[in-house]
Amino acid sequence: MALRARALYDFRSENPGEISLREHEVLSLCSEQDIEGWLEGVNSRGDRGLFPASYVQVIRAPAAEPPPPARYANVPVGGFEPLPPPAAFKPAAQQPPPESFPPPPAGYPFPPYGGSYQPSQGSDDDWDDDWDDSSTVADEPGALGSSYPDYEAAGGGAPGRYRLSTRSEPSLGPRGAGHPPGHPHPPGGGGAAKSSATVSRNLNRFSTFVKSGGEAFVLGEASGFVKDGDKLCVVLGPRGPEWQENPYPFQCSIEDPTKQTKFKGMKSYIAYKLVPSHTGQQVHRRYKHFDWLYGRLAEKFPVISVPHLPEKQATGRFEEDFISKRRKGLAWWMDHMCSHPVLAQCDAFQHFLTCPSTDEKAWKQGKRKAEKDEMVGANFFLTISVPTGPGASLDLQEVESQVDGFKAFTKKMDESALQLNHTANEFARKQVTGFKKEYQKVGHSFKCLSQAFELDQQAFSAGLNQAIAFTAEAYDAIGDLFADQPRQDLDPVMDLLALYQGHLANFPDIIHVQKGALTKVKESKRHVEEGKMELQKAEGIQERCNIISFATLAEINHFHKIRVRDFKSQMQHFLQQQILFFQKVTQKLEEALHKYDSV
Fold first, then answer.
1. Three-state DSSP class for 339?
2. Average pLDDT of the chain?
3. 411 and 380: one domain?
4. Residue 25 maps to a domain
């Protein structure tokens, strides 16, 4: 008898690993045992994943095929046992809010924080060097460098790590875990005394606010020793909160990509020469080193936009055009890294820039140190130092207004960047193919006319024939100029747009962290007004929210500052190249024109 269930209500998945259900739909279950209020199964469309146990009724019916193997049969059931909805209750066919569901089971394979960073898959610069261990500190269970919160650490954890939860049912909010909207709270769920009221925790553990450690920090669960070298200072500048400038600014060039081999020529890769201005010592790095560094930084800095790397490519990695394009993309990436006051001074980035290429032991040590960094997750926010004293406090309504305005700005910028990128790409394609072909077609026609005139053997027509032939050559050369021009002006514009599209993809998560903190402040204020929370506890939540708000506004100001610098420079370069291009075209036409003076 195959395990099956019938959907009692509609359910729309919004997170990785979940599947959608339709009312009355029959599903195949992997196991009848629910995992923290969730079941795993396969719906009628063949999708496999998790769904709320209280949304289905288990039935038993014969089936031709055995049920799929249960991946979570041995996972211990924790959390809260969901109650079945009453028979008379039937919610509207819509998705309930994410907060009405319990967190997915521990160990469920959800994607890394931010959703944008994916570790190298081996198609591009495999991790097989001698210094690459098969198991690193970051890969070990419970390692401090892990990308995911440790859901089993509710009652404690490794030293330096924050507790995810030490509370039970009263912290779940107005509804029991896994219940459809409108279901009464389980008995005893709201009987907590006023003096012990707490701000509720997000039950959606996929939330960026939760995964980044922002929630744990705001609720006062972060603890750790912050060294002076780890402090990140926010100061008040003319435009509001800003990251404190790097006292020792530097730049780093990326030059001479060369193909190298190892294992007696069996393995090939491209190495890039990096020359930081503050050391003057060159080092060589492969793309996989950039990829590793990006992963570390994206995990460590949840309220900082770490620039995205150029895209990976499985084939054609050694073609000259691809290598040149990647080098330019990495140069833009490096420029934004060196220009950021926080990222430029990060220990992992400095290790990446300064560790000698031939010192494998030193590289390993620095790599493991970065992967064991304790100032990640909730502890990262402890490192942020914000202005204090009169006039240094933030008005939360004003902060919310600024963040909402920036959110609208990024949405519009993203749309316009996509449009410009499409237009520039289409225009470049026309120049390389269409314009070149059309100008050379004109040149060919002039050449045919010249050849026809040469049939006339009169001496006085020779000069005209030569002038027309030269005009044909001029148009042929102009066609080549059109084909080569996008490399000079349009390609750099599209490279810059690609970099900023990466930044724009980062900011929704950064804003989500700030919005989550602001929600906790509003909730704590409501508890104070109702007499359910002490004022001192609510003030602590607001103070920690201010830290996140200061950091968010500082990052927004840095983005605008660097954006103005980059687009000013790039538009100047674009117009200069356009002027030079048309000057070359004009020169070709003037040379052809002068040939007729002697006719």
1. helix
2. 78
3. no
4. yes
Residue whose entry in the numeric block shows the structure tokens 């039935």: 59
Domain shared by 479 and 573, yes or no: yes
Helices and strands counted in the chain (H then E): 12, 11
Q: Single out the residue of 376, 1, 101, 439 nearest to residue 226, CA to CA.
A: 376
Domain check: are 504 and 528 in the same one?
A: yes
Residue type at position 271: A
Same domain, 401 and 378: no
Residue 167 has pLDDT above 90, yes or no: no
Contacts 24+ apart (CB under 8 A), 242-246: 242/554, 242/557, 242/558, 243/340, 243/341, 243/342, 243/554, 243/555, 243/558, 244/341, 245/341, 246/341, 246/344, 246/345
Domain with residue 301: its CATH number is 3.30.1520.10
The answer to the question of whether 326 is labelled as a binding residue is yes
Q: How many domains does the chain have?
A: 3
For 480-514, the pLDDT digits (tens) are 999 999 999 999 999 999 999 999 999 999 999 99
**260 and 354 part of one domain:** yes
Structure confidence by residue, pLDDT tens digits, 40-59:
888 888 888 888 888 888 88
364 is in an annotated binding site: no
Same domain? 586 vs 444: yes
Say if residue 182's pLDDT is above 90. no
- Order of strands, edge to edge, in the sheet holding 267-276? 252-262, 267-276, 283-286
The phi, psi pair for 271, rounded to 5°, reads -110, 140
CB 151 within 8 A of CB 108: no
Q: Tell whether 349 is covered by a domain.
A: yes
Residue 288 labeled ligand binder: yes
Q: Do residues 7 and 13 lie in contact, with contact meaning Cβ atoms separated by under 8 Å?
A: no
Range of 262's domain? 243-385
Among 297, 281, 400, smallest CA distance to 349 is for 297
Residues 422, 549, single domain; the answer is: yes
Q: Choose one of 385, 404, 425: the last residue of a domain.
A: 385
Structure tokens at 130: 């001698």
H/E run at residue 280: none
Report helix angle 396-429 to 490-529, nearest 10.
Answer: 160
- What is the Cα–Cα distance from 320 to 384, expressed in whole angstroms? 44
pLDDT at 405: 95
Please check whether residue 443 lies inside any domain of the structure.
yes
pLDDT of residue 110 exceeding 50: no
Nearest by Cα to 399 from 590, 251, 554: 554
Same domain, 405 and 296: no
Q: Is residue 135 part of a domain?
A: no
Angle between helices 490-529 and 535-594 (to 10 degrees): 170
The SS3 assignment for 99 reads: helix
Residue with the two structure tokens 């319990």: 102
